[in-house]
């Protein structure tokens, strides 16, 4: 046995899965091992790949399984966190009712924690990332969709139906006037602030824009592969006024989500992660400005608005952190 | 000492304060003692009245102070829950920075818990009211304003800045189109669903209503004392179509608040308390219908929507419950 407890964190996504061994202080012992998920090959092969990814991560860390205290695994929703069950996530079709936690626990004979991937990433940022040292933190993850996680005193708010921290589906506009969300409802934060919807809004804004000529118009007929949220943020940073408007609106919508987090759990920190945070401080301070303008004055005077610091490592680090919480609770 | 632990719960409001001794199983040992708060007489007199109310409650229970294990006190916001401090609540003007917890602890030589009044009421309903047996519960209290509290596993979500569960200020419409709230912002749930705003909306709806003649018009020039939310709910129950529309809209707005509770903490139960719940099952089922229609499908399929069961006793019972939590944590 190693002197210090060590944990494997496995973060399963729809395209790839990543795992690494993480020390008791949150430091990964190697770069993560990455393998293709290939969900279309079925869940039995998926479980086998998970076990193989874990084995390779242990080897990459230069340790043996005997040195591992506990294992954590995280998957995208829909899952049943208490039961350790993948139910039927759209990103892992056609998997259904996969008892992932118990399978891995049996395969390795180790205590195994299961968590939703966005919750795990939030816990990673809370434990050793942007939220290190905070008592409570809410994370919004900005990608193709908008996800989230809520941590209070090292406890993940999992929810009674494993839907705690589904912050992309906080509604920021009434259903009768709100934008259509992929979930079927209208007015969800995700329908405004996901990378996909930032681009959609830019396309819409072009139609009525009468301000200075915008380089965004060059992308009017571009495919979604060429016309990304990054293009918009880069043009905004270069001073393009239409692009600035789209980014400014994005900050406003995200701030409305942050205000809802404050009115419910009133965290010490609100952290934003994902591709858009590459834009940096000018974008963060726009969000902060809107939070202070539209949030409850007393808590938003003090709440810290920050960007995530672990990048795409937050998932496996946080998942290892969940394994650590499990080991410490025993 | 009595065989069973016993707790005093003191619920301080802007007009009156109430206290009673509550047994370890949540049963009050007497009707609550009620005294006038008279905040305008200053905080020293206020603290003296609190102590006197506690003494009378102990006497009313037929026990002595020696039989009391711990004391709980709750006040309306703004307070600092961790520090046990009343900061400057609009309902307790001109009180400022009152160290209420330490004052009572010293006066009686008992462990003393301090809590926000809506949080305490939520804990009361969770402990022995509508939420008894649930793992997690969110309470919306409907009165002159809209308040709330969030309980997860017997823990009150107090928030880092004592603003956890400020559910009246969950925003249900964007600031540019939302109704004006008393807090200064626009679009808050309270600006739609407080008793005051239910009446305001009824007055506004009269202006454009072209449906069947409504008895609400009799109240067009009535004062707010005569034209109450109760009048509207009673007329709706009697089949008045305009009144029904106002009530139906209220259920819709409350459901949007409930959806936000689900997307953040995903509780097992969402409970509504306050005057309007006297309307009964038909109003509850309207709210439930909108929650299922506009909320995330998976959690709202199972979330229980209920009305509070302790009435105005929830405050002092829950406050005594906070004293009990404090005693059990020692």
TrEMBL record, chains A, B:
Q: Which family does it belong to?
A: Belongs to the ROK (NagC/XylR) family.
- Cross-referenced Pfam families: ROK
The highest taxon in the source lineage is Bacteria
Checking PROSITE patterns in the record gives: ROK
**Source organism of the structure:** Frigoriglobus tundricola
InterPro entries in the record, alphabetically?
ATPase_NBD, ROK, ROK_cs
Recorded hits in Gene3D superfamilies, A to Z, give: 3.30.420.40
What's the protein name?
Answer: Glucokinase
């Amino acid at each position: 046995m190693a002197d210090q407890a060590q944990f494997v964190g496995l973060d399963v996504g729809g395209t790839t899965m990543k795992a690494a061994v993480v020390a008791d202080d949150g430091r990964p012992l190697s770069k993560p091992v990455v393998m293709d998920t290939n969900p279309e090959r079925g869940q039995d092969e998926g479980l086998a790949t998970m076990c193989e990814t874990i084995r390779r991560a242990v080897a990459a860390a230069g340790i043996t399984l005997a040195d591992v205290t506990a294992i954590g695994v995280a998957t995208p929703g829909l899952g049943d966190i208490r039961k350790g069950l993948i139910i039927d996530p759209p990103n892992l079709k056609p998997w259904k009712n996969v008892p992932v936690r118990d399978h891995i626990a049996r395969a390795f004979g180790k205590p195994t924690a299961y968590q939703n991937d966005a919750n795990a990433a939030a816990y990673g940022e809370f434990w050793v990332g942007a939220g290190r040292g905070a008592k409570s933190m809410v994370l919004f993850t900005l990608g193709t969709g908008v996800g989230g996680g809520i941590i209070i005193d090292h406890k993940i708010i999992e929810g009674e139906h494993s839907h705690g921290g589904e912050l992309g589906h906080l509604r920021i506009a009434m259903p009768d006037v709100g934008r259509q969300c992929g979930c079927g409802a209208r007015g969800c934060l995700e329908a405004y602030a996901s990378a996909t919807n930032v681009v959609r809004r830019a396309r819409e804004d072009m139609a009525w824009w009468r301000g200075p000529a915008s380089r965004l118009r060059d992308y009017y007929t571009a495919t979604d592969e060429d016309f990304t949220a990054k293009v918009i943020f880069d043009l905004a940073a270069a001073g393009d006024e239409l692009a600035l408007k789209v980014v400014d609106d994005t900050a406003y919508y995200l701030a409305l989500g942050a205000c809802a987090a404050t009115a419910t759990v009133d965290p010490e920190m609100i952290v934003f992660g994902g591709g858009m945070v590459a834009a940096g401080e000018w974008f963060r301070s726009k969000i902060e400005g809107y939070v202070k303008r539209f949030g409850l004055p007393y808590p938003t005077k003090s709440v810290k608005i920050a960007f995530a610091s672990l990048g795409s490592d937050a998932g496996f680090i946080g998942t290892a952190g969940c394994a650590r919480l499990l080991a410490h609770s025993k």
